[in-house]
Structures are given as structure tokens and as C-alpha cells.
Amino acid sequence: MNKEATQTKANATQKRSGSAGVIEKETPAEEQPDPAVLTKEHAERKEEQKGRIQELDRDTLLHLLYQMILIRRFEEKSAEAYSLGKIGGFCHLYIGQEAVAVGALSALRPDDYVLTSYRDHGHALAKGMSADEVMAELYGKAGGCSAGKGGSMHMFDVGLNFLGGHGIVGGQIPLGTGVAFATKYKGTDQVTLCFFGEAAVNQGAFHESLNMAQLWKLPCIYVCENNQYGMGTSLERAMSLRDVSQKACAYDLASEFVDGMDVLAVRAAVERAVERGRKQYLPTLLEIRTYRFMGHSMSDPGNYRTRAEIEKYQERDPIKLFIASLKEQGVLDDQGLAQIEDRVRAEVEQSVKFAEESPLPAPEELFTDVYAEQ
Amino acid sequence: MATQVVMPKLSPTMEEGQLSRWLKKEGDQVSVGEPIAEVDTDKATMEMQALSSGVLRKILIQEGESAPLGQIIAIIGDAEEDISALVGKAGSPQEAAKTKERIESSVEAGQDGAQAEMAGVVAEGARTQATIQGEPIKGDTGAQASQGQQQPTAQGGPTTASAGGNGSGTAESAQGDGGRLIVSPIAARMAAEAGINLRSLSGSGPGGRIIKRDIEAAINSGKQAAAEQEAAPAAAAATAPPQRHLRAVETGAQPAGLPSMEGPAPYRDEPTSVMRQTIARRLVTSIGPVPHFFLTTEIEMDKAAEIRRSINEIDPELKVSINDLIIKVAAVSLIQHPQVNASFQDKAVRYYERADIGVAVAIEDGLITPVIRGAERKSLGEIAAEVRELAERARSRKLMPDEYTGATFSISNLGMMGIDEFTAVINPPEAAILAVGSMTPKAVVRNGEVVVRQIMRVTMSCDHRVIDGATGARFLQTFKKILENPLLLMA
Amino acid sequence: MAVITMREALNQALREELTRDENVFLMGEEVAAYQGAYKVTKGLLEEFGDKRVIDTPITELGFAGLGVGAAMVGLRPVIEFMTFNFSILATDQIINSAAKMRYMSGGQFKIPIVFRGPGGSAYQVSSQHSQALESWYAYFPGVKVVMPSTPADAKGLLKTAIRDDNPVVFIEQERMYGNKGEVPDTEDFTIPLGVADIKREGSDVTIVARSLMVPVALKAAEEMEKQGVSCEVIDPRTIRPLDIETIIKSVQKTNRVVVAEESHPFCGVGAEISAEITERAFDYLDAPVRRVSGADVPMPYAKNLEKLAIPDVQQIVAAVREVAYLD
Questions:
Q1: CA distance B202 to chain C (A)
Q2: Most buried residue, A14, A35, B3, B205, by most Cβ within 10 Å?
Q3: Which of C53, C72, C93 should we substitute to test contact with A (largest number of A Cβ atoms within 10 Å)?
Q4: Of C279, C284, C325, the CB nearest to B185
């Protein structure tokens, strides 16, 4: 057995050591965990978050909070615009999952690459795209990041190395693998972060990609945002081995299971994966357990889960959780929070104004961007 | 984009026009070239054609009302389009004056009235499009705005060719009596360009499809006929109709051969003028499908009888009859008067380039008209032999269809039955038939003296859609002159 | 000019482009150590090393998508499918990713990738390994589709395809790898995409043929010459963009068209060409456009049946005679 494999195994073992950010994988989701145990565990994790707060500077912490609130408010506004008919087609909201994109991307350098699925508004904003161009894209306007041709599912910003929202479940996973291949080929130390939902794990593309990534040692970080439902089908009804992180074993890949409601836990896990990628060209699979508070898309009837279930998860709303910890640690007060909220509100309102005022794509745009000119 | 329909200049002296009838109503779909109204000018009632396609959105003058040249009288546009600006403009006398001025200046420039106007208006890019009468428009842009008459050329864009491509080819097939004509697109196009009647061809493709090689063969035979014509100055070259549609004649790639007497006579189509169409329409509605009129004249037959006698004396085998002579003279006269050797084709008057004479032959239970093709070029002996042979077979009912159809002119002779004078009914689509009465000695005054002459009365029935009185009369003058002086056949 | 096989011509093109541009890499099943399932990539591993000539697991969707991702950030992958039959597994990445990335991102990305490999009928490998898929890929805007029929075309077109900034599906004909032909010795010989080649001039009937059908059509043209019919053989070479102008020009001259293809007729490239001709040159036609296509059945194994499923000289001759009204 070579050195890398040993290290991978060490990583896998680390997961079971009960260290920060890792919970017991043996808790099957469909079983009702003992509420007392759960409460204790949640309390422990809150303490862990507070511990991490101490390790970070105030500006970074407040910026993370700002980004999460921005995504939340942006998505709420999107829902409103959708209901008003301003946004068409599919519209998959990120509410509830903000800690994942924000925490993960905060661990990257600006020149690292990010790809994600069709639930991409949050990642786009977290990568630094302006709310204006994301909202204008949702509106199908010329000022949108993809000139109004992509819509909700296809946010791109090549300048920010944000390589898109992709519409076919799992389709972005081989792409992310290819981007990681290219950075290694060129000899840079960039890493690629590739997000997907847990339902994509059942696609061949996931398995083919993990196999190649570990085979060829590609610096790709596969981030499975396990929100526990593939559209309306729960994890329990769709996956034989429900521990996604464990699937890495099949490809001898490093993996971790992370609490997706804790922005700092996500950040820390991705930091470890980035380290592995930059220094050793090694891939990592992260399973980040999260929950979406809204339907799969705006047209979701939501009849596959109970209100009680949603409320249970909302108790651990990642934003509420983080605010509480920040306040308890004395990093944030009501006034500070109000300032952030005001700033976000202005930004989101401005984005709607921008989108409203942006012109529709010119009719001749229909025929542009099909082929690149030499 | 909406376009304005303005009162067009339809005659050189026209100042205003009275709208006699709208052929379309508001909301109707109109396409380029479609007649939309009739306008009475100082000269005649003219049809106006649309110069753009779309919906006739607004009619601005009513039937019976008059409008000066250049006034907007209607608007054509898309169904949903806002035309209020154009409607507003319509009322503006300045606008009308401007258009009128433009029209007038182009007339002064020496161009033909309405046509020059169109060329000017369209070329200028103004979205004002006047309508015009059905004459082809000269001038580049105007010609594009016209329709129908313009045959696609080989250089034309491939995508635009299809609309006009079938041209007279399909027009012909549509009005024919038989079943559907099957023609390959290139064959239809070539036929239209060469002025070949597709009905006259039998296709060699599957299911009788007329294909390119059939047209090429027809062009070659037409070319041979033309070459023959050029080589025979006796055939009244000066009066031969123009052959510009026989494109192959100009290219002259094939060696000239003997003239073909097979199939129907070659012809050229000339579009009917609005006036001709109107005359046709009106006369038809007044006195029946073919509006007849009759011209009668007396002919002194003494010299003709003498010639005939001499010929038969020299060669008794020839057995030339007076009727054979009449056929020959009629044919020669027809070539000199192509307006009579013609047929009405609705959108065109067809002028035949060969005189194919139908000779009425009474048979047991009716009448049949075997055809002597190209009689103008046949000798009296040939005509006599052919008539005899055809008549014989007609009586025994052994004629093939192509032997009794497709004449360009007919002769009915009841003289041998003692009829002095009668009128015959035209055999459509021919434009005329000559009814020949008996030859009888009559006392006539010649040079102040009463003398006896063999007199024959002939009456020609004319299709007024094609032949006017004077036209028919001039033909009969020629006919009479030659028949009275048969030596002119040699001239 | 050197006379070489199509296999060698393709190998030369790959070698030259790998030499010319560091960003070009070659990836696929058995392309490296094995020297290529059809030996097209022979010697390249030795010359360029395993960084640039990469054997993959049997994972078509995966390495096709990997290629697209690499192209998104500036590399120029040449992805070999051992045969195009296996590309069916990768269609999501070719169609949904490669073809559409530029458009749905509002023009932010170039996807300079070549998917290449043998396609069309092979020898007695039955239904799943013997099929022509060009109409699938040509259907999609955003992809170019190339099918060479001679060694020179193969070399010149592949070099251009690798330099093209768009996804190119480059379908080689398995039966033609051994075909020999002259290839220009000129340095850096390329052929532009989207330009048809008149393989034989003629005046009576146009035969549009691609890939394997080009030599078959040329033989048919020779046969027709003896029968007094002059055939023009046009090889579009690029299916998308299709050089329809050259075809239309020929039809305007000949008035009769036969489209020969080994693919199935239904929704095929021949159907497209036929429709284009009808739309653009209807008035020039003297006969309906006649397609000679592969049988509308999955490819059989038995040698005699397989022969019947692929158009041959006699079928093309019969079609030419039909449109020339010789029967």
C-alpha cells in the first residue's frame, strides 16, 4: 500500500474519531434518534462553532454572516419575483443551505474553480458575483450574467472562475473533474470545488468521476450537499447505502461527513480538502448534511414531507445558529446585525431594480454565442 | 410594415381616378400582384394590383369616389400593426401632392408613366407603394415589385424561383381539359421560359412525367421549325411573329433540320392587357362563353377557278379542289395576320407560329375537323392529297386524336351543298372560323360594265376576345386579295 | 506527395498538433500503451509521454465530461472513442455540456474539444458495434461534425478540428483506415471545416456521398460513365456546418441528385440534404431527390445480410439510372 492510500485511510479514520465537525455516521436518517441524545449533540456542536469563532477574525466572521443573509434575502426576493411572474421556468431556491456554499467557498482562493448544479444562485453570490447580474439573469434580461440565455440554472462567470450551474443531475461532476485535470496539467495549485446534491450520487457520472480523480490524483473537491431529498424522493427511498461519504471507499478517496448547518464546520472541512488538493493533487469527497427549507423548486407541492419535519430543521437554521454563536461570543450585537440586514436589503432591492431596468436581450442575440469564431 | 396604396397613374393623361369597384374588402388577405380594385380613368377601367402582401387594413375611398393621382386610398399591413400614423397621413394633401410630383417628374424624365412612377417610388425606399395595372414594369426595382410575368432566371436566387417557376407551364396545365399534368420542376421552368405548351408534350418519365429531356427535344424541334422558317422567305418573313420566347433559336446550338409538322403548332404567349381581359370578361357575360362577331365578304373566284383548272390539267393526279386553294390561301393569310391565328388563354393571348387549318368534314352522325398542319408551307397538291386522305379516314372513323385536334383556324365549306352564305360556330380555343358558301355566277359591275363573275361569299366568325372588327377585316382583305389573284402565292 | 493510409494520415495529424500546441492532449481507451485499438495513436505515448497521451478506464461519460471541463479552462482535448458506438454513453456530456456551454453562458466559454474515433459500419460485429451516428450529433447547434473520406482529408480536417474553438465530432470510418491516398507534404497542411469537395466533376447527376460512400459513389460514377451518364460526386466532408451551396450549385447544373449514405434513412443527413435541395433548388430538379441509405434495420451479423444492409455500387447505379430516367 502506498503512502497516499495510507493517508486516505487515516482521513477516513479521522472521521470516526469524533473530532470537530464530524458526527456519527451510524445514525440512519429514517430512525428517530433519541431526542435527548440529539439535543446533547446539538449543544456540543454549538460549542464547537463557538470555539471556531474564536479562531477567526471579526471581519471574516461578519462577512460570512453577511453572505449567508444576502443569499437568504436574495432567494426570498426571487421567490416573490417568481410568484409575480417576473421569473420564468425552473427556480430552485437555496434557502436553508446557505452555510454550505458560504462556508465552503470561504476556504478557497479567488482563482480556485467552482461548479455546481442547477441550484446555483447561492454559489454564484458566494463566489462573488453581484446580486444585480444574478437577478437580471433570473429575469431573463440582457444584463444577466449569461446575457439572459441561461436563466436560473445556468449562472456563469468565467472571470471569477465560477464555471456554472448545470442542469442535468450529476452532469457537472465530470466537468469539475476535467477542470481539476486541467489545473494539474498546467501545473498550477488551484483546486476545483464541485457541488452536487445527494441524488446525483446515484448517477454514473459521480462514480466515473471519483474513480478517475483518485486514479489520476486530481485536485477536485466533491461536495455533496445532502439535503435529504432528490426532488420529492427521500434519501431513504433512493439510496441503498445512505452514507454518502462512505462511497469514497469504493474509490480509495478521502472523505468527510460535515454538519451543513454550521458554516464554520463546512469551512474547516473544505480547508482540509483544499490542503490535500493544493499540496498533493488529491481529491476529497465531502458529504455535507443540510436541509432545504423551501420546495425543490418553486413548483414543488411539498407533499412528501411534513411541516413538523421542516420546523425541526429550522430550529437549526444555519443563519440563526451562527448569529446566536456570534452574539454569545460578543462578535455581533443587534445593531451590528441590523447594519448587515440593511446593507443586504439595499443590495437585493438594487438587484431587482437593476433587473427590472435591464433591457431584454436583443432579438438578434438569439443567433449569437452558438459557435465561437476562430 | 404597413404600406400605402396610392391612386396610381394608369394613363399618360390621367389626373384622377374613380374607384369603380373594390375587389377586396377590409381585413382580406392580399398578396403582391393580386388585383385589389378597379379604377376608371379617363381612358378605361383598369385593374389595380397590390404591390405588397398583407392584410387590406383600411380602405380610404369608397366605390364611386374619385381621388387625385398620388392620394392614399388604402393601407396594407400586418393584421395587428398600428396604422394610425399612415391613416393620418392619408388625409394630408401635401402628401398626395408630393407623390404626384414625384410621379410627374418621372414622366417628364421620359419614362413610361405608371411604370416609372413605381420604379421611382420603390427605388427611393419610401414605403409608399402605389398599385399599378397589369403591365410588366420596366426598371429594376419596379420589375421586382411586379409579379407573375417575371420568369425566374438561371441567375436568380434559388429560393425565390419556386413561386414563379412554374409560370405558364402550370397555368397551362391548370386550364387544360385532361388530367393533372405531371412535370418535373426544371422541365416546367424550361417550358415556361421557352414558351412551350406542356399539354402538347407527352412525358417520357415515369407515369408520363414531363422531364428535362422532353423539353430539350421540344426546344430542338421548335428550333428546327424556326430555322426552316428563316430559310423560306416565301413564308412571309416580314409578318412572322417574333420568336423571342424560343430561346434556343438564339443559342442556335443544334443544326437546323426539316420543319416538324408533328404535334401542335409552335406559338408564343403575350400577356393579355387589362383592356383585353375586360373585353373578354364583358363580352362573355353578355353573349356567351365565346363572344362571336361575323364578317362577310364577296370574292371573285374566276382566277382561282382558272388556276385550279390549269393545275389539274397539267397533272390530273393532283386533283386540287377550290377548297384546297382556300385552305392554302387562308393559311398564308393567317401567317400575315397572326392576330387571327391565335387563341384566348385567359391571362394571355396565344399567337401560333404555324397555320394549322381544321377542315370541317361532315360524317354520318356529325362533324369532324381533320387538321392540315403548316398549310402555309404545303403545296396545293400536298394539301389536296392530305385533305382527301384525312377526310376518307374521317368518314371511316380512323382518325387519331392528334389528327383532328389542335387546329389554329378552321374552314367550313358548305358551298358544295348549295349554301350561298352561312355563319359557323368557332371551335374553341381557336379564334376564328371561315364559313365558305357556294361559288355562283353573278352579274357584277367592273370598270363600268356589267360582267358575269364567279362569286363566293365567305363569312368569318371571330372571337371578340382576341380579334376586333378591324383586325378580322384586314385578314379578310388579304384573304380576298390572294384568292382573287392566286399568283400572289408565288410572290 | 506521399501515399499513406488514412490511419497514418490521422496519426500524422495528431502528432503534428500535439507537437504544435502544449494544450492538446489525447485521451481515450487504449490510446497509449496499447497504441490504439485501431493503431491510430501508434507511437504517440512514446513521443509525448503519459501526461499528454492518456489511457482511460472504460468510462465514456466520465472522460468525455472530463474533456469538456478541461476545455472550459483552456486545454484542447482530443477524446478518442474506441468506436463511436460507445459515444452513446457520453452523449449527455457531448450534447448537454459541450454543445450548449457557450450559448447558455452567454458566450463566456470556448469549448475546443475533438471527439474522434471510428464510426459507421464495421466488419461483422453486429448491431451494437456497427452504426452511423452522424445525424445524432449534427442535429445539435453548437457542435461541428466532420467525416473524412480520404487520407488527405482526414489529415487536413483533423488538424483544423483540433485548432477549432468549438466541439468537433470527428467520425472516421473503420473500414477506411487502411485506404491509401496521396497526402500533401506541405508543411502544416490543413483543410477548412464546412467546405465540400467535388471528388469528381460531372454534368448529368449529382451524387452526394460522405465517408465510406465516397469511394463507392466514385465507382458508381465510373460505371455510369460507361453508360453515358456523367456523374458529379460531392463529398461534404463536414456535415455541420454543411456546405449546401456547393451542393445546390451542382444541382442547378445537373438537375438530378442521389444522396448516398451508410446511415439509416430516417431523420438522416440524407433527409436533411434532400430537404435543403427541395427548399433551395426545387425549380432545378428534374427528378425527386433519391436517397441510397443503409437498411432501416439494426446491423446483422451474417456476412450476406450485412452486405445487403450497406449500400453498394449497384444500388447507387440503380438510383442514378432512376433519376436520369434511364429505366
A1: 14
A2: B3
A3: C72
A4: C284
Q: What pLDDT sits at residue B102?
A: 56
Contact indicator for C290, C265 with CB cutoff of 8 Å: no
Q: For chains A and B, tell me whether 3 or more CB atom pairs sit within 8 A of each other.
A: no
Q: Which amino acid is at B128?
A: T
CA-closest candidate to residue B13, choices B115, B114, B102, B101: B114
**Those residues with Cβ within 8 angstroms of residue B242's Cβ, 6 or more apart along the chain or in another chain:** B268
Pairwise CB contact (< 8 Å): C287 & B211: yes
Q: How far apart (Å, rounded) are the C-alpha atoms in residues B282 and B476?
A: 26
pLDDT tens digits, A343-367: 999 999 999 999 999 999 999 999 9
Quote the cell numbers at residue B20.
369603380
**Given a cut of 70, is residue B61 above it in pLDDT?**
yes
Contact C255 B204 (CB under 8 A): no
User: In Å, how far from its chain's centre is CA C266?
Assistant: 18
Q: What one-character-per-residue DSSP string does B24-58 give?
A: S-TT-EE-TT-EEEEEE-SS-EEEEE-SS-EEEEE
Phi and psi, residue A203, nearest 5° = -80, 150
**Per-residue burial over C101-121, b = 16 or more CB atoms within 10 Å of its CB, e = otherwise:** bbbbbbbbbbbbbbbbbbbbb
Neighbouring chains of B at 3+ CB pairs under 8 Å are C
Residue of A149, A163, A182 lying closest to C104 (CB–CB)? A149
Whole-number Å distance between alpha carbons of B141 and B145: 6
How confident is the model at residue C72, as a pLDDT?
98
Q: Which residue has the cell 407541492?
A: A301
What is the ipTM score, two decimals? Answer: 0.94
For the cut 50, the answer to whether the pLDDT of residue C16 exceeds it is yes
Q: Which three cell numbers stand for residue C92?
A: 449527455
Q: Which residues share a beta bridge with B432?
A: B462
Query: Which of B159, B187, B211 has its CB closest to that of C279?
Result: B159
In sequence order, the 6+-apart residues with CB closer than 8 A to the CB of C119 are: C83, C84, C85, C131, C132, C133, C134, C147, C171, C172, C173, C174
Residues 6+ apart with CB under 8 A from B229: B235, B237, B240, B259, B353
C-alpha span between A120 and A153 (Å, rounded): 6
Burial profile B47-74: b = 16 or more Cβ within 10 angstroms, e = fewer: bbbbbbebbbbbbbbeeeeebbbbbbbb
Find all residues with CB under 8 Å of B406, minimum gap 6, and list them: B200, B263, B264, B265, B356, B371
The set of cell numbers assigned to C258 is: 442521389
Show the CA angle centred on residue A298, arms to residues A294 and A303, nearest 5°.
Answer: 60
Exposure on the CB side of residue C327, measured as CA atoms within 13 A = 7
Can you list the alpha helix ranges (DSSP code H) found in C105-259? 134-138, 151-163, 213-226, 244-254
Cα–Cα distance, A125 to A344 (Å, whole number): 12
Q: Is A72 helix (H, G, I), strand (E, B) or coil?
A: helix
SS3 content of chain A, % helix, strand, coil (to 5): 50, 10, 35
- pLDDT tens for A10-54 read 344 444 333 444 444 444 444 566 778 888 889 999 999 999 999
C99 DSSP 8-state letter: I
User: For A75-98, what is the mean pLDDT?
Assistant: 93
Distances in whole angstroms, Cα of residue B1 to Cα of each of A368, B52, B57: 25, 10, 12
Q: Which residue of chain C has the CA closest to B167?
A: C283
Higher-confidence residue: C171 or B135?
A: C171
- Amino acid identity of residue A343, one-letter, is R
DSSP state of B289: S
Kindly state the DSSP code that residue B233 receives in the 8-state scheme: G
Tell me how close the Cα of B157 comes to any Cα of chain C, in angstroms: 8
Comparing CA positions, the residue from B479, B457, B483 lying closest to residue B325 is B483
Q: Does residue C287 have a pLDDT over 70?
A: yes
